[in-house]
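Researcher: Before we compare anything, I want clean individual predictions. No alignment, no superposition, just each chain on its own. First chain goes here; please echo the sequence and then give the structure tokens.
Model: Echoing the first chain and its structure:
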Amino acid sequence: MKPRSFVLSLALLSLAAKMYCAATTLGAVDVGIFYSFARSIYEGGLIELYKGTQYFNHTPLVGWFLEAIYALSGAKGGDAQVFAFLLRLPAILADMASVLTLLWLREKTGRPAWWALALFAASPVAFMVSGYHGNVDSVMAMFVLMAAVACATENAIFCGLAFGLACNVKIVPLLLAPVFVFFWWKRGRLVPFGAPSALCILTGWSLPLLAIPTIFLKDVIDYGSVWGVWGIPYFLRLTGNPAFAGIQMFEPTRAQSAVMLALKLIIIPSVIVIAWRRRDVEPMQVFKTLALVWAVFFVLAPGFGAQYLVWLAPCFLVASEFWFAALTITSSIALFIFYNAISNGMPWMMGFNLLSTAKIWVRWLALPWAVLTAFLICHSCAYLRIRKNPTP
């Protein structure tokens, strides 16, 4: 069997497995939270939900998507299983689209290696997050991948559209903006990138930005995720200091908020420096720039959600097959233990038992964090030492 056919076969088998999982399980706790949001939007509208709770920290596009699948699942007490399946369907299809995008890139550039593409197509991380968890992170990762591929093929307009769509799925791609801005600015094509990107973002965010700008900026743009389960916040929690104790999902203490702010103030200028120093790299090298930015973010992340681990795979795959494999293996171990614990063991049906099982799963998240830390230590200096014509 030819390598391309083998990768496609793995991708189709993975697609079928994810579809079966999505059709026969309810998924993780996010599904229940999204169901509640969807009902509120359906009954009272998106703006009222933004105004009524600080817990809805998603983009308008996600809100309207939730409303639509709530209606399709049978509004006013709809079928929760149908809703759970429809919620996961875009992520499942996005994984397949990402494989096809990478196969196209492979035809154009010879990267990434076939064995790494096969691992990506059959990734346990993608199966657990897209097929079981229930969120939109895989869709965002697909659009970021497409934006990076557009850089590699020097298509500024498509890069802007893909980046704008990524920002309409989740806010976090804004962190990557300096990479794309400086890349296209150096090539004299900032306007072809920036115009469609800005138009797409502002159009998608226009309703809450015009109606409730303060609430939207505070609850969505400034969202810090879950404290105490990953990286520096996790290790601070292990010190036993009461100020850093507990796993906080929405209301961190004053000390925790201060640490989260400090980490953000380190991450943002670090990203800008990386993007500026690497603005003149060869087009394919943009994947290494993005991998380095993701590594900085995840090593210093002020908060964390298990599903975030799918963000990394596409960029790391093209940047370095070795580090992609290490990250996939460690993430697969950590996520299996996480989902198995919150789902009360096999077979998985619904994973809502989050906080009470934290002692079982939280320590295992240190595995992928350690890989990312090692990657950052090994490659930050080399990636920032740019020559006029760097080699791949």
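Researcher: Okay. Second chain, same rules.
Model: Second chain and its structure:
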Amino acid sequence: MSDDSPMVKTAVSRRHFVRSGALVAAAFAAPTNILTRAQGASASGEPSPIQLGLASYTFRNFSRAQLIGFMKQLNVFALNAKDVKDHLPMEAQQEAAALADYAAAGIKLHAAGAISFVKDEEADILAKFEYCKRAGIGVIVAGDPSLETLPRIEKFVKEYDIRIAIHNHGPEDKIWHSPLDVLKAVRNMDPRIGCCIDVGHAVRAGTDVVPAIHEAGPRLFNIHMKDLTNFENKESQVAVGGGLMPVRKMFEALIAIKYKGFVDLEYEIHPDDPMPGVISSFAYMRGVLAGMGVTHKD
């Protein structure tokens, strides 16, 4: 795509708008209290289901203590945790220490992942469900489960009453290119097996994320939010609002399906200095919600 194309020009103009001090100030003046979703209201006066959270992979090069400090600065207290660095270790004692630190900071864990489910082995799957049960986590974001593994996973979903959200990984993935692939595979399975739509990977697979949200409906358990300036280029990721992702239309679709999960920012670029892009991303999303008439009480 050339630098003179309408899509690139649109992305550049939107990026400049997002970066404006007025928008950032307005967005942070009314931050989202993600622990009290029902306090929000849409323009129609109905409760807003939009909850903003953070995928801990965003801060994969930073310790748990640093992650907690960043979350306090962001006024974000909902976490989708991953076993990376010391964020949420799989080992029980270390996990307990992490949970104590999050509780002391007022941070609530709502999901874990992505967790790999490539092995069709009872002990391996059991260990991962136990890991999430100990943390009080209700959604497992599952990475790379094979089709053969799904029936065994379904057995544990029923036993533990923990939902599985299969994560789409774009055109590089052997099975789960798009959330539509997930929906096709699980349509006759327990309703607690559904999808985590990674919007960046989805658009690269040629999926229109807004209709995909509607199609997923009650099987949508998590959103990984990111933005791209070129939907065919994995390396074009930018802060949310700096690219072409239809954020407002996505939020409108989530409200329409009465989505009860989280929109978790997964900012994968600049791993050694992600905070500027993370701040800009939350500012933009909060600004979009404010523009939609969604208000939040802290």
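Researcher: What stands out in the second chain?
Model: The beta strands are 52-55, 78-81, 108-116, 139-143, 163-167, 193-198, 220-225, 227-228, 237-238, 262-265. Additionally, Residues 1-43 have pLDDT under 50 and may be disordered.
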